[in-house]
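Bench log. Compound arrived from synthesis this morning; before running ITC I wanted a structural hypothesis for how acetyl coenzyme *A sits in the protein. Inputs:
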Amino acid sequence: MNSVLIGFGASLPKKRILNTELSPDLNTSDEWITRRTGIKQRYIASESETTSSLAVEAAKNALKHAKISADDIDLVVVATVTGDYTFPATATIVQRELGIKHGAAFDISAACSGFVYALDIVDSYIKTGKFKCALIIGAETFSRIVDWKDRSTCVLFGDGAGAVVVQAQETSLGVQYCKIRSAGEFIDSLKTSGGISTTQTSGVTMMEGREVFRFAIEKMNEALQQLLLDNNLSVEDIDLLVPHQANSRIIDKIIEESGITKEKVVVTLNKHANTSAASIPLALNEVKDELFKKKNVVLLSMGAGFTWGAALIKFSNNISGR
Ligand code: ACO
């Protein structure tokens, strides 16, 4: 049994903020943000938009794209570090809003690597036959946990949600490989200033940008090389690479070091900024029309922890239900 990705959906807050619309008090500029990161705009949730409301809309769009109903879903996994409540899990709110009365729902926390971590979990469940059809949603309202006075972090992040329907199918297509890693000795390089058990607040995002930058390039490249080796592929065999969307200079370095053709690399950070766990599924949604024409699609992630991971997914026009 393989885990086949059959539907993609997304949701963005209504409000879009261009670099030029950021507060003058931040003492930043469109020129600096574009040159150092590639980001041109981000979407910011209003008070009435929450991680769960974005997740639900993304999920509905993914179900529509997959042409299946919510009743077919027996597992909902939301990757997020900005859930609606401390508990219950945002995934259970999604389950309620979609009217799903069976199966299970839970959240996972791996920051920007959340989607690849969730895919690994869901793939394992599907391969063991425990669940038949899952919704994986990366959803964040990161704007709620950045310090809007700190120009070195707040300009980098945005809000949004991306969802994917993953179905068990008797096929050689779908998830071929998924490998997750973490290195806890680096927790202080990227974290919030507080938490429930320490300060009873969520805290705000603190990042040693240069350290994260270096580590992201090194580990995403390493993960890519390992994926190629483990699957007996060369970089030319990759048809599409969907990396975590944090900084275009990180992506450019991965292109340079791996030798992959630039046109095969999906870049959406100019539109969405860094949406943490939502970044990869949002990017997948952007290219959903071409995905089924591709053979080998690679996902690469890197986030706080540090956490990182890589996945290889085989697509085809012949995927059942497409
Ligand atoms: N506007 C103008 N100037 C700025 C801004 C800004 N928004 N931010 C920082 N600067 C200034 C700094 O104050 C500094 O000035 P100084 O030289 O006078 O001290 C100068 O720009 C350079 O600052 P650096 O921090 O060294 O800038 P750098 O080129 O390293 O870029 C950045 C910073 C964009 C954060 C980069 O390091 C980066 O992308 N890091 C990786 C982020 C990432 O990948 N995150 C992924 C995981 S996120 C997650 O898991 C939640």
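What the model suggests: The longest helix spans residues 209-230. The pocket of acetyl coenzyme *A is lined by residues 28, 32-33, 36-37, 111-112, 151-152, 155-156, 190, 209-210, 212-213, 216, 246-247, 250, 274, 276, 303-304 (CB under 6 Å).
ITC booked for Thursday regardless.
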